[in-house]
Specification:
The protein is mainly β and 146 residues long. It is 10% helix and 49% strand.
Length: 146
C-alpha cells in the first residue's frame, strides 16, 4: 500500500502531510490576530465566509515565529471535522511513499518536534518529516478560534 503526501518547507526542513487531509493551498493572506491565544495561533482568516483559524507551524513546532510575507502559503487541512490553516514557507511537491517506508521518529530524541510527527521517510537524498495533524491541531484554543 502506498500513501501520497504534499511536501513543504518550514525553517528549511522538509515536511509532509497526507494528501487526503488537505482541502486547499492558499497564497498568504494577512490574518486577524486574536487576543489571549497561544503564540502559535497566528489568527484567523475568512475562508469563503467561514472563520479559519491559522497556526504558525514553525511556532507550533517550537521554533521561532514566522514573519510571513507574500512568499508564504497557507495549507488548509481538515482535522477532526474542522478546517485549519497552517503557515508554511513554501509548498514543494506531491510524493508517493510505500506505507512500510514510513519509520517512527527516534524515541530517544528529546526534540520538542517528535510528538508532532507520525514518522520519517527518505525521499531521494532528503528526509521528510510526516506530520501527525491531530497532534499539531490538538488544542482547545484552536477549537475556540474556529
Amino acid at each position: 500500500m502506498q500513501r501520497e503526501f504534499i511536501t513543504f518547507e518550514v525553517e528549511g526542513q522538509l515536511f509532509g502531510i497526507d494528501i487526503m487531509a488537505i482541502r486547499e493551498i492558499r497564497a498568504w493572506t494577512p490574518v486577524t490576530r486574536l487576543p489571549s491565544v497561544p503564540d502559535y495561533v497566528a489568527g484567523v482568516v475568512n475562508l469563503r465566509g467561514t472563520v479559519l483559524p491559522v497556526v504558525d507551524l514553525a511556532a507550533r513546532l517550537g521554533w521561532k515565529a514566522t514573519d510571513p510575507t507574500s512568499r508564504h502559503a497557507i495549507i488548509v487541512v481538515h482535522v477532526d471535522g474542522q478546517a485549519r490553516g497552517m503557515i508554511v514557507d513554501s509548498v514543494s511537491d506531491i510524493v508517493t511513499i510505500a506505507a512500510d517506508a514510513l519509520q517512527p521518529p527516534p524515541a530517544t530524541s528529546g526534540d520538542a518536534i517528535v510528538p508532532f510527527l507520525e514518522g520519517l521517510a527518505a525521499i531521494e537524498d532528503r528526509m521528510v518529516m510526516v506530520l501527525d495533524l491531530k497532534a499539531v491541531g490538538a488544542s482547545e484554543d484552536l477549537a475556540i478560534a474556529a
